[in-house]
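Lecture notes, continued. The same structure-token format from the folding unit now serves as the input rather than the output. Read the line below as a description of shape only.
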């Protein structure tokens, strides 16, 4: 099992997220990247902990633990959420999409491809959360984005390496690819 602090306890089964001493276990079921998953969890387990420790989906990063950086962004029922602020039990019955679920049939999602083509990353730590936030932004705006709207839409995602120029270009191109329009110059 895993405690709420992410440390494995001696009786932990491999790959399981679980319960801290004294906490009762709660059954949780959800779809993650299109696959049904179930687990008995400590009710205090954060979604990011369940994804990373329980399901070994480590593309979702933990950067700050305070909802400031956006490295942990995933989609829950089609909307971007910071998984470090969501309890896994609150996602019972939900559909969760992580960065690992965006690519389909070995082909990168258009936003992933746009980040690759535009060099929208340096160290890559923020990239999964940035891409997930960008996909949500495009879906909410139907791709009608200019530079100011992209910068405002990604305000909750921090990149400590870049000046955001290439990230904005990537989102612009990704939005065009997602919506079938041409990218604005």
């Amino acid at each position: 099992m895993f405690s709420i602090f992410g440390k494995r306890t001696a009786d932990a089964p491999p790959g399981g997220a679980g319960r801290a001493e004294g906490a009762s276990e709660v059954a949780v079921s959800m779809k993650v990247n299109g696959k049904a998953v179930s687990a008995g969890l400590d009710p205090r387990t954060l979604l990011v902990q369940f994804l990373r420790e329980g399901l070994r989906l480590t593309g979702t990063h933990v950067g700050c633990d305070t909802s400031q950086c956006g490295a942990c962004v995933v989609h829950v029922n089609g909307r971007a959420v910071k998984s470090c602020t969501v309890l896994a039990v609150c996602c019972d019955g939900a559909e969760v999409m992580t960065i690992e679920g965006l690519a389909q049939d070995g082909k990168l999602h258009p936003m992933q491809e746009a980040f690759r083509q535009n060099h929208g990353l340096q160290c890559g730590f923020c990239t999964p959360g940035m891409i997930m936030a960008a996909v949500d932004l495009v879906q909410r705006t139907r791709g009608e984005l200019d530079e100011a709207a992209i910068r405002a839409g990604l305000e909750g995602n921090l990149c400590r390496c870049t000046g955001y120029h290439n990230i904005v270009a990537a989102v612009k191109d990704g939005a065009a690819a997602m919506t079938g329009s041409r990218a604005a110059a």
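Point for the exam: The beta strands are 26-32, 35-41, 73-76, 79-82, 95-97.
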